[in-house]
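Module 6 notes. Inverse folding takes a fixed backbone as the condition and produces residue identities as the prediction. Think of it as a translation problem where the source language is geometry and the target language is the twenty amino acids. Below is one complete input and output pair. Work through it position by position during the lab.
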């Protein structure tokens, strides 16, 4: 399904709501599709089964499978750069709560970013909680598995929004342990079935409470971790603007809904405000 650009009237309507107000953006995977990172739930998304937290925690085979696919996907995912939507939002100067783990809002220069679900460019140890760069682990993974070659091209159906890749894995894949304690490594992201840290959620709500409007960009708000902010804004009786290709779970809460491409809408908004 082609993604249409916004009309001038739609952009003007959004600008009229936001102009003169302090506002923040809540973003989802749809803002990063133009950077070659796919969306889990957009109208054109390929069905997929992302890693579950309990499986990763309890089963060595699940961890091995994840890290093999992550190694392959990271070769493209790690090379993604901000697109015009990220840059437009950064230029508007609004703070951002993002459900994405790609770090592209910070790279684009947004002044304040809450990475609600963590960052894929970091790795955490289950045992000692040491944080280390994902790029360093990529080097260790490739050195431990020299026979594994190739990559998943950016934008390919097999690549996932969390840097994983939907491909078969070899049984002999080696996953290096934590360099600090020899423990089990996990990407520093919130997996499906895992809870967002309470302090991070509280920070996001405090940020929302300090603003006068909420712009949701590129999110269907299917999961509660994002939907709760739209509901909170509606309870506060502040405007909720939705920019998303396809329906969202907060459509009935919207002051304005723009069913159009995220990047062209944000770019046009930046030129208008």
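Target side of the pair, the amino acids:
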């Amino acid at each position: 399904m082609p993604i249409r650009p916004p009309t001038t009237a739609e952009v003007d309507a959004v600008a009229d709501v936001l102009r003169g107000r302090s506002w923040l953006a809540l973003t989802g995977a749809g803002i990063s599709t133009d950077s070659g990172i796919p969306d889990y739930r957009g109208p054109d998304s390929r069905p997929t089964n992302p890693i579950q937290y309990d499986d990763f925690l309890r089963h060595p085979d699940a961890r091995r499978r994840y890290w093999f696919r992550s190694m392959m996907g990271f070769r493209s995912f790690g090379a993604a750069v901000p697109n015009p939507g990220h840059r437009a939002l950064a230029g508007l100067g609004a703070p951002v709560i993002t459900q994405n783990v790609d770090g592209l809002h910070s790279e684009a220069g947004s002044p304040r970013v809450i990475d609600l679900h963590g960052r894929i460019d970091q790795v955490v140890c289950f045992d000692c909680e040491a944080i280390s760069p994902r790029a360093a682990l990529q080097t260790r993974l490739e050195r431990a598995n020299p026979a594994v070659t190739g990559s998943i091209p950016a934008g390919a159906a097999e690549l996932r929004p969390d840097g994983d890749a939907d491909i078969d894995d070899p049984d002999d894949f080696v996953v290096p342990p934590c360099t600090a304690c020899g423990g089990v490594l996990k990407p520093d992201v919130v997996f499906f079935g895992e809870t967002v840290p309470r302090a991070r959620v509280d920070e996001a709500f405090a940020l929302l409470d300090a603003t006068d409007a909420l712009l949701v960009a590129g999110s269907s708000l299917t999961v509660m971790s994002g939907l709760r902010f739209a509901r909170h804004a509606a309870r506060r009786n502040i405007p909720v603007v939705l920019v998303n290709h396809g329906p969202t779970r907060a459509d009935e809460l919207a002051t304005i809904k723009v069913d159009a491409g995220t990047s062209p809408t944000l770019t046009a908004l930046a030129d208008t405000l």
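Reference fact for the lab report: The first helix runs from residue 8 to 18.
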